[in-house]
Design goal:
- This protein is mainly alpha-helical.
- About 65% of the residues lie in helices and about 0% in strands.
- The chain starts with a helix and ends with a helix.
Length: about 150
């Protein structure tokens, strides 16, 4: 995505083409990464990359794949597709987040709030996420969200 934003479409495409291949010396890549690559998060960001590069049709294909899931990135993909039901799903998902939130939940809450246009509340969630023990790369993701703002 960073390469696409820099206008380096060929390099970005090359990286995407090699994403599922084994990397010598990294044993966890031996059996393939297809399960991870098929997740809504990956499909959503691949769609953003393709949209950034100007290929709206391929972006749409990725977002349609992401929209078949059941998580935060499914909602973001529905929004990117212009689906009228995304807002209700986001509000419902936000209402289901409860209890004492950990860093991962705070990140997800922040992303939902941002999607709903509640940027200052979202930023507070990202900042609070950084004060909690890191879960599932939530500190990295919260930092990226704060840096990227509403992009």
């Amino acid at each position: 995505l960073a390469l696409a934003k820099q206008g380096k479409g060929a390099e970005a495409g090359s990286m995407v083409a090699g994403m599922g291949r084994e990397v010598p010396g990294l044993a966890f890549t031996r059996d393939g990464l297809e399960a991870f690559l098929a997740e809504p998060r990956t499909e959503f960001y691949l769609g953003r990359m393709e949209a950034t590069l100007g290929d709206k049709a391929v972006a749409r294909d990725h977002w349609q794949e992401a929209a078949m899931g059941h998580d935060l990135f499914t909602i973001l993909a529905l929004r990117s597709l212009g689906d009228d039901g995304w807002r209700a799903k986001a509000e419902s998902a936000l209402a289901r987040l409860g209890g004492t939130p950990g860093s991962d939940e705070l990140y997800r809450r922040g992303m939902l709030l941002r999607a709903l246009g509640r940027a200052s509340e979202a930023d507070e969630c990202f900042k609070e996420s950084l004060r909690q023990p890191d879960q599932r790369l939530s500190h990295y993701l919260a930092r990226r969200a704060l840096i990227e703002g509403g992009q």
